Amino acid sequence: MEILFLAHRAPFPPDRGDRIRSFNILSYLAARARVHLVAFVEEDGAIAPEHRARVDECILVRRTKPQVRAAAEALATGRPVSLTAFADCRIKTAVNDLLARRSIDAIYAFSGQMAQYLPGQFPRVIMDFVDLDSAKFAAYAADAHGPMRWMMQREARLLHAFERQVAGRVTASLFVSEPEAALLPGSLAVENGIDTLRYDPALVTPVPADHPLIVFTGQMDYRPNVDAVAWFAERVMPLLPDAHFAIVGRAPTPRVRALAGPRVTVTGEVADVRSWLAAADVVVAPLHLARGIQNKVLEAMAMARPVVASPAAAEGIDHAGTLRVAVQPEDYAATIRELLAGPEQADQLGTAARRQVIGRYGWDARLKPLDTLLGLGPA
Known about the structure:
alpha/beta; Rossmann fold; seven-stranded parallel β-sheet; six-stranded parallel β-sheet; about 45% helix; about 15% strand
């Protein structure tokens, strides 16, 4: 069987949320079929041999279109910016060429931006939206003002129409969680998993910590992460005078870097995020806007850390009470103080979290529905 895999960002290395999902899906498919990859990359660079070996043909196109140009194209054509930002004739040519040369049995499109490259008719197409982007922009619009509010509303409206049109012509539409799938009728949830062999606290040396350590991990130029750490540093940390807050993740924005101080560390990119998770007394995920299942929460749970998360970050995760949920700054502070004051209780919560993740979120188990959807044979 031959599968064409389209991705808005090359699936390797699996070092951020979307790439972790796409990498594991691609690996699952490649163990059962011949996979050809067409994807964007954000910068030129060599592909590790073990990653290149997972696919047959591999066509990577560097995405260089400035956001201003994408916005101008969107306004001129009546399309969403999310699509014009990823509109590239080189990708279209590569897709058409592969479909003409190879006996492609199925197409797997990862992220809604790649739906624009799907042929008009094809017998088996899986559209992995991951999250419903139109809902994300609707949430952005609610917090925006002036022209930006208009742009976010426009994006939400146009994307919603596009998502519904795409869902109506593919074999299956997938989302990362049941609540997300429910937003587009007829869709299915294929949840994220976690590599519990890699995320094992027994294999990692924690970074040194002189004070009770609270850790947040994530891509730090992603708006929901930026808003979350700024809110936590400004609203919660003043209530926890004896604790230290570490913001761990690549590409911190100026707003994030400005949070650094005597009790807040902004690491930037680190060699191994597991060392920071292993050192954490508590891991927090105070996201006000979160779509689908949060990898950062699963990773912390797999590392047997006690997690305190917002309702949005906890939604979609079958945590069975193995993480704590908080809303207001006072809720976070009280819960974190309780965990810091009772290390045995915190350890029990973390141990239960790891046990839950092992039993519920192994990648092979999560991706098993793809066998039926794609007609895959055994690995």
